[in-house]
């Protein structure tokens, strides 16, 4: 099969990014939109992806029919779930060729420039993966309710829980916990109502505030960030034990959490060669 274009999709719990190139790798367009977690919000994720694909073609000055001449690889949060994979098997966006994998897989390929290695994504959610050049071994990635250790959503959940405990004088308060409660008008009931509709990305919105407070020495913020760093350390060690020789960290928490990791782990980390979209495009080139 010969195609003229390659398109990579990186769909996460907070945002979805799309990059379009020609077969030579020349970037033609890139755009982003809202969340694209196919486990928690399948229909919304598909609508987001299709809208971004159309926008990318338009930005590149190509007609919608050019999608029929495009190889697409989508790396999506939640795509590792078998029931979701079955639904995605029926997704037909009208491209020349399509492969759907998890977002951690495209991140792993991109992080090591297509060479074997491992990656730990710590964004809204979290997941680890190791790639030997042909096959992936995954760790975690089972969603906010069961997994996602070392993620923004888990850190946010802990922060709100701690804020509530401080509000009820179970633990000592701090500027961080007081500010979080102020966002809910100091009302546990308003916080409870908010949780009815809160998605993982909603829980993660407080994360920048937690890191800023930790940098200022807020005792509760420091405790929260250290817990997250400990979770990441445990999972990273498991990737090394499963044969990974190189480990890169990616995602929104990768940089802010790094100074809080153990010195041993920091010394063993490698910088990503490229981003997850680059990994998706490498796989799309294989597909094409």
UniProtKB/TrEMBL annotation:
InterPro entries on file: ATPase_BadF, ATPase_NBD, Euk-type_GlcNAc_Kinase
Keywords: Kinase, Transferase
GO MF assignments: kinase activity
Superkingdom in the source lineage: Bacteria
Gene3D superfamilies associated with the record: 3.30.420.40
Domain ATPase BadF/BadG/BcrA/BcrD type, chain residue ranges per copy: 7-283
Presence of the UniProt keyword ATP-binding in the record: no
Protein name: N-acetylglucosamine kinase
Species annotation: Candidatus Pantoea multigeneris
